[in-house]
Amino acid sequence: MFTEATNLGPLTQRLKNEAAWHDSYPSWPEYADECERLLNFLPAEQLEKFWPRLEAKKQRRDETLNEIRIAWFLDSLGYPVSDWNEPVDACGHRVEFAVSLPTQTKAFVEVKCNGLGIGVK
Fold first, then answer.
1. Which of 14, 17, 106, 117 has a CA that sits 20 to 30 A from residue 4's CA?
2. Distance, CA of 86 to chain centre
3. How far apart are CA 65 and CA 70, in angstroms?
């Protein structure tokens, strides 16, 4: 469980202080570390864009963190985000972001969250 002894990074502490949600997240040091890593992963302009969603109600926070988790994971595999600004896919749908592929093309990423886990389409 989260205790005062758990060290929060500066962005995580700011988020917890400004948030509308008041649950125990991040309740474990591992979650606090992950949250700080995800917030630091975002380019500054994207952090500003995501911030209102992160500090909103718990469900919106969790959905937004899942989007960032997927982007971080794909980046760690060598597929960096090439477009954070809700690009339009071939079918004309807005998606969360696009990543660069080795073939100099991009893949569109839409993250689906149902409260039970994460899915990438």
1. 117
2. 14
3. 9
